[in-house]
């Protein structure tokens, strides 16, 4: 597949946003579910679950990529099951989503958990005595008071997802026009000695990240003004 | 009302043991004792926020907890109003929304109308209409307490729990708010339990008192039955009897005191 330079940059950008966007959605919802569960449950393995969730933060991305291949690769633990369902994650953009999700999950999880735990428990108890179910306590008290911290975690996770390189390279490969995201394209262009394209991609990536951070900031400020807090 | 609780915390959490055996038919009961004696924990057990290892709680004709039969109603089903020590107003909701919180967001228009009527009536009787659209951060301490009280009473609970209701106020404000709060409560027939370590609170709000000391709730006495003889036996009772005589003295001398 031979794409003209403009088209290929456009493709990279859309793919990057798509991969990071889906990965952020998946990671953020899983993080919210787990953080909610962990914030109220008291069980002995809690420390272990926390450590396991933080693992992708400290492991080299290549290790994460390798573990994912062991898990979802053609001969992996879930590979045959996935193949029967008609899902191929190796060398596909869906694989890049899986890699990004695993890498950014800890960022989202830690921010969500900290934000939920920072909510005054007396307020949650007050809601309970006023007849609220646990679900209503979450939706009407905890989330409205914790959303700023959660959003900060989500925007950080999204930015990190856009820059995901190592695990993505191992599981989805670096196929121009199929799985090549901005971060991979920059490396590719630099290796090929195409400095102009590399620079253009670097500027584009930076601009995207700045725009996203400003957006998140602006959103926070507007909601703050609306709530009068 | 019957409250029986026996709960021992594990040693790594202080090893505190709470033993309560209260049987009272008082409309205004005070738990009186020093901090850390288990008063708040008893209120939490009453409201369902804390589940003791073993216990039995009956309010009116409803059994809320019976550990022998495996009954333990969750907090949301107990219909008990709780006034928290620092009021626990939702900072992201206005005064009106705070009071309307227990009703949720009803789908049916008739339900919504009923909610609005009841909330507006509460705002009116607690003199909060002027600040109905303010957020809790923008109102005074006395107003905050009235909001918390209105929110706790709007569902017409079968019992109201007041946890050190005046300790968050500065002493000058405390006297006025206490009088106001007493007048407001007198409008509602809801039986109430008040926790305090201030004998004045007991005198103004309660008709009976249960003494708390180091996790043990002693017998419940009606205030009228307290005598000078009791004061000799217990320091807590001595402070109560003394506060009562001060009040009686003030009442007798009130008229001349007002004149200057």
CATH homologous superfamily identity of the largest domain in chain B: P-loop containing nucleotide triphosphate hydrolases
Q: How do the helices and strands follow one another from N- to C-terminus of chain A?
A: HHHHHHHHHH
Mean pLDDT score of chain B: 87
- The total domain count of chain A is 1
Q: Which architecture of chain A would the CATH scheme give at its second level?
A: Orthogonal Bundle
The percent of residues in helical segments of chain A reads: over 70%
Spans of chain A of 5+ residues with little confidence (pLDDT < 50)? none
**CATH level 3 topology of the largest domain in chain B:** Rossmann fold
Q: If you average the pLDDT of chain A, what whole number results?
A: 87
Q: Oligomeric form of this entry?
A: heterodimer
CATH fold name of chain A: MetI-like fold
| Name given to the CATH homologous superfamily of chain A | MetI-like
Outline of chain A? globular
Describe this structure in words.
The complex is a heterodimer of chains A (229) and B (260). Chain A has one domain (5-227): MetI-like fold (Orthogonal Bundle). Chain A has 10 helices and no strands. Chain A has helices at 5-40, 46-58, 61-72, 79-84, 93-117, 121-129, 134-162, 166-172, 182-191, 195-227. Chain B folds into 2 domains: 1-79 and 160-179 and 192-260, Rossmann fold (3-Layer(aba) Sandwich), CATH 3.40.50.300; 89-156, no CATH class. Helix content of chain B is 38%, strand content 23%. Chain B contains 8 helices and 11 strands. Chain B has helices at 39-47, 95-100, 109-125, 141-153, 171-187, 199-205, 228-233, 235-258, and strands at 2-8, 17-23, 28-32, 54-59, 62-66, 71-72, 80-83, 159-163, 192-196, 208-213, 216-222. Chain B has a 6-stranded mixed β-sheet with strand order 7-8-9-3-10-11, with helices on both faces. In chain B, strands 2-1-4-5-6 form a 5-stranded antiparallel β-sheet, with helices on one face. In chain B, strand 10 (208-213) and strand 11 form a beta hairpin. Chain B is globular and about 60 Å long. The chains are: A mainly alpha (229), B alpha/beta (260). The interface between A and B is medium-sized, with 20 and 27 residues.
């Amino acid at each position: 597949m031979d794409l003209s330079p403009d088209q290929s940059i456009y493709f990279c950008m859309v793919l990057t946003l798509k991969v990071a966007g889906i990965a952020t959605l998946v990671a953020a919802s899983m993080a919210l579910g787990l953080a909610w569960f962990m914030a109220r449950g008291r069980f002995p393995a809690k420390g272990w679950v926390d450590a396991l969730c933080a693992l992708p933060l400290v492991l080299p991305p290549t290790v994460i990529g390798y573990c994912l291949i062991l898990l979802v690769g053609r001969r992996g633990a879930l590979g045959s099951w996935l193949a029967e369902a008609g899902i191929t994650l190796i060398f596909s953009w869906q694989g890049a989503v899986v890699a990004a999700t695993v890498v950014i999950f800890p960022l989202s999880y830690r921010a969500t958990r900290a934000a939920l735990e920072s909510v005054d428990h007396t307020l949650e108890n007050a809601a309970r005595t006023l007849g609220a179910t646990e679900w209503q306590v979450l939706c009407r008290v905890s989330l409205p008071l914790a959303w700023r911290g959660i959003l900060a975690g989500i925007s950080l996770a999204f930015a990190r997802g856009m820059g995901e390189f190592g695990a993505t390279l191992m599981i989805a490969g670096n196929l121009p026009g199929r799985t090549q995201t901005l971060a991979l394209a920059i490396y590719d262009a630099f290796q090929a000695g195409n400095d102009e394209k590399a620079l253009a991609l670097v500027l584009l990536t930076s601009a995207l990240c700045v725009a996203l951070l400003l957006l998140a900031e602006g959103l926070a400020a507007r909601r703050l003004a609306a709530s009068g807090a | 009302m019957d409250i029986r609780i026996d709960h021992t915390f594990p040693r790594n959490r202080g090893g505190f043991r709470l033993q309560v055996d209260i049987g009272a038919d008082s409309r205004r009961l005070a738990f009186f004792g020093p901090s850390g004696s288990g008063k708040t924990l008893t209120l939490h057990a009453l409201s369902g926020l804390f589940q003791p290892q073993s216990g039995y709680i009956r309010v009116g004709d409803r059994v809320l907890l019976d550990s022998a039969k495996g009954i333990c109603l969750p907090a949301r089903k107990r219909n008990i109003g709780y006034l928290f020590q620092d009021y626990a107003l939702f900072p992201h909701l206005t005064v009106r929304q705070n009071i309307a919180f227990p009703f949720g967001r009803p789908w049916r228009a008739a339900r919504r109308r009923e909610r609005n009527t009841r909330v507006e009536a509460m705002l009116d009787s607690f003199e909060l209409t002027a600040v109905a659209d303010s957020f809790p951060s923008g109102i005074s301490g006395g107003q905050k307490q009235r909001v918390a009280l209105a929110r706790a009473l709007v569902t017409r609970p079968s019992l109201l729990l007041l946890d050190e209701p005046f300790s968050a106020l500065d002493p000058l404000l405390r006297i006025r708010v206490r009088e106001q709060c007493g007048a407001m409560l007198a409008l509602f027939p809801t039986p109430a339990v008040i926790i305090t370590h201030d004998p004045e609170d007991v005198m103004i709000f309660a008709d009976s008192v249960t003494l708390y000391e180091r996790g043990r709730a002693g017998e419940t006495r009606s205030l009228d039955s307290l005598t000078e003889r009791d004061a000799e036996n217990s320091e807590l009772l001595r402070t109560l009897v003394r506060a009562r005589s001060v009040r009686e003295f003030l009442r007798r001398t009130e008229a001349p005191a007002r004149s200057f």
